[in-house]
Amino acid sequence: MNAHAFSEQQLPPWRRAVLKVGSSLLAADGGGLSARHAEAVADFVSASHAAGREVVIVSSGAVAAGSAVLRGQPDSGAPMAERQALAALGQAKLIGFWQSLLQRPVAQVLLTHDDLRNRRRYLNARTTLAALLRHRAVPVVNENDTVSVDELKLGDNDNLAAIVAALVDADVLLIATDIDGLYDADPRRHPDARPVEVVAQLSAELLGVAGGSGSDVGTGGMRTKLEAAQRASASGIATVLFNGTRADVLEALSRDRLLGTRIHALRSRVAVRKHWLQNAVTEPGGIVVDGGAANALVEKGASLLPGGVLAAEGDFRRGDLVEVVLRDERGTRRIARGISQYSAADIRRIARRHSNDIQSVLGYNYGGNVIHRDDLALT
């Protein structure tokens, strides 16, 4: 066997994945988009759907698509506004391109890192993506390049994919690249470079080995992929690096067989999330619940519904981390903390009401839970 070939390994079970596809897999020679490699990627997505799984695509390629509209590929020194214009022109082409390859409805989702750093906008994006997956659509996520100057300049859709993986509670982050996986040296410069098939924990040495971009159309390289894997690992999500230009690798991946590099998560997703919920700083005030609601939270692991809420104290907003307290004849005591789906003002209006009444009372709703059980940790 070729000493430099990756051997086949079993991919752990997964139900939801984020798949990052870079420009090098999508760009056609001379500008525009090519289905040459994308068809096999789409076949993998379709096979995953047929197996009852969900896939969110984080796709580069808008600038490459836009270059075909204006018949020009920007050089590395092109003004930022030019690259932003190409991204704006190419975004519709990119979504149409994915729709032509997939049988399910494709939904465009444009995000910036600012959207994902702001807790309320983060929660809104998460709710929207969850609804799209519930409707069996394929979200295609990209950075909102026309307003994200820094993100477009850095081109780190790899890291965006890691953030989206945490956003949607993915089981695995799949990064399709144009080489077979991670090596202990740059295989283009060192013929004796050997595959690194499993990484228990990313080290400074491995990050140092990673080089820059190997493509004229992509702006990311192996280092950004490892940085994304490091971010995903810290969120409790494993990462897989594989060659998206090889149809046989994608076909094997659809059978849970990996020819590439698997990077383990440091901890489980549940452990990471619960640790954050238990240790992050809460907003002043909180949500007061009755004994029935407290029992449902503590004994049954249920979500907090408005019917069990007595009051909201303080002036917190939707998406804030707040304390949940039980108030009864024995006094007041903390029982949990979680991310509120509604502001304190909204909760005061829907307290003691049925979840079905939220829309009529508020004129809108963010779901029937005041705090979803996935966003709640007992104290």
Automatic annotation (TrEMBL):
Record keywords, A-Z: Amino-acid biosynthesis, ATP-binding, Cytoplasm, Kinase, Nucleotide-binding, Proline biosynthesis, Transferase
GO BP term, pick one: L-proline biosynthetic process
Catalysed reactions, as listed in the record: L-glutamate + ATP = L-glutamyl 5-phosphate + ADP
Domain PUA: 285-371
Enzyme class: transferase
Subcellular location: Cytoplasm
Keyword check for Cytoplasm: yes
Pathway(s) the chain acts in: Amino-acid biosynthesis; L-proline biosynthesis; L-glutamate 5-semialdehyde from L-glutamate: step 1/2
Record's protein name: Glutamate 5-kinase
